[in-house]
Amino acid sequence: MSLKVRKILVSQPKPTNEKSPYFEIAEKHQVEIDFRPFIKVERITIKEFRQQRIQILDFTAVVFTSRTAIDNFFSICEELRITVPESLKYFCNSESIALYLQKYIVYRKRKIFFSKTGKIEGLANAFTKHNKEKILFPVSEQHNEDLTSFLDKKKLDYTKSVMYRTVSNDFEEGEKLDYDLLLFFSPAGVSSLLKNFPDFVESHMAVGCFGKATATTLKDLGIELAIEAPAPGVPSMTAALDEFLTENHKRHS
Predict the structure, then answer these.
(1) Measuring CA to CA, which of 50, 90, 105, 153 is 20 to 30 A from 76?
(2) Which residue among 150, 166, 182 closes a domain?
(3) Sign of torsion, CA 90 56 132 68?
């Protein structure tokens, strides 16, 4: 594209790590990078939870595939004044998710299993050993059915419970989208953009994204992509952004 990029919007929360590559890129290329999540996670109400007719204390185990699921599960327990029993078993998608449980429980006193692959399939052996458990599976309203199909294959006694949802993070009325480059990370983020700016056209700005699903969503809308990650040689959004800005600078120098 012919536009010189000076101002970038990353549709994610601002990194808490001062050594984030985004800050290095901003300094290296002399560009301004703003962080603004287009989506946010919202816990369902207690009324919505009760409508599912689920009694948390009926379950002997729980499956967690994200930190968000953990936060919302314990938030619901707290509001319902449920004391989570020490006997409850935890099956987690990864070690980092398992360790996050320390925010709510005494880790060493509990039965916790985690996948070493970062995928639910890595829990196959643990599920085989504990196949008599009555399992609760907290999920998002927009969850991936692949996760439940694995539990079905293992013939486990589990119940899905929607505990949170992704919603649009609305902009203030009259706010302008005053950027040269927009970066997206989910189809929900793209939907939020169109909700906030229904007249959006990318003719005066570049658009980049991370992930196949997000790229497909943008292309289906007829939006041309200046950056698409991951790609060969650019495994991350920051690597792709650095490469794009280097080329953009060459074109305008």
Answers:
(1) 153
(2) 166
(3) negative
